[in-house]
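Hi all, posting the design record for the shared folder.

TITLE: backbone redesign
STEP: 1 of 1
STRUCTURE INPUT:
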């Protein structure tokens, strides 16, 4: 049987605010399979963003294990984490996190350049993926010259450009209209199926539930249920 792309067992995380401790995850068990698009849904504050941040190696869990392609970030040093993320993971942040001095094209090319691609090659690939998300004509624009929805598509293109084995997205369609959101999800779905990649998407958008293979519903730091066929 093929090993899960992501395997979380009893993952716990608590935030220390200085005056009190706030449990964010209370022993999460979750598997994500190769070639699968899994969505995490649930109310705000239930731990979804914390969980995907641990999966992507941005946060460390306090307890439990989270293995991504057989490796746990908790057992890596800072350099190993950075290199592993650069090779294997694409992340779409809810706040986009685009670099203001760089054009859309240059922002999208960053992961390829980090991985050692020549600048010309990186920019060529970045232009291709921008065209696929409908922004080919805005490739020379700075983030400040783009709408929120356009910035979101640049962030999605940046997460996909280096063909990562795992793509993790925090509300990727929140700033997109219905038609554009569906086009972006069709692209993500195509990438997952064609390349045996895995996608984990946090969303409150019921319009895109049908694109999921499975939906995991979270509440109060737990996974309450996992259902198939995009029916939460």
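Okay, here is what came back for every position:
SEQUENCE:
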């Amino acid at each position: 049987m093929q090993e899960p792309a992501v395997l979380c067992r009893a993952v716990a995380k608590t935030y220390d605010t200085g005056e009190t401790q706030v449990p964010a995850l209370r022993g999460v068990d979750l598997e994500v399979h190769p070639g699968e698009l899994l969505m995490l849904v649930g109310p705000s504050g239930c731990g979804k963003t914390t969980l995907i941040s641990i999966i992507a190696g941005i946060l460390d869990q306090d307890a439990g294990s989270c293995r991504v392609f057989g490796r746990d970030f908790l057992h890596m040093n800072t350099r190993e984490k950075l290199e592993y993320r650069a090779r294997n993971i694409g992340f779409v942040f809810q706040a986009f996190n685009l670099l203001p001095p760089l054009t859309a094209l240059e922002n999208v090319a960053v992961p390829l350049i980090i991985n050692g691609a020549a600048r010309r090659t990186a920019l060529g690939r970045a232009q291709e993926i921008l065209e696929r998300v409908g922004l080919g004509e805005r490739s020379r624009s700075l983030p400040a010259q783009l709408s929120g929805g356009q910035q979101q598509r640049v962030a999605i293109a940046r997460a996909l450009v280096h063909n990562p084995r795992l793509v993790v997205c925090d509300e990727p369609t929140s700033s997109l209209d219905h038609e554009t959101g569906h086009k972006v999800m069709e692209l993500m779905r195509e990438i997952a199926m064609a390349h045996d990649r895995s996608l984990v998407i946090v969303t409150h958008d019921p319009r895109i539930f049908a694109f999921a293979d499975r939906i995991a519903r979270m509440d109060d730091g737990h996974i309450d249920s996992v259902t198939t066929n995009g029916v939460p």
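COMMENT: Residues 13 and 61 are 5 Å apart (CA to CA).
Let me know if anyone wants the other runs.
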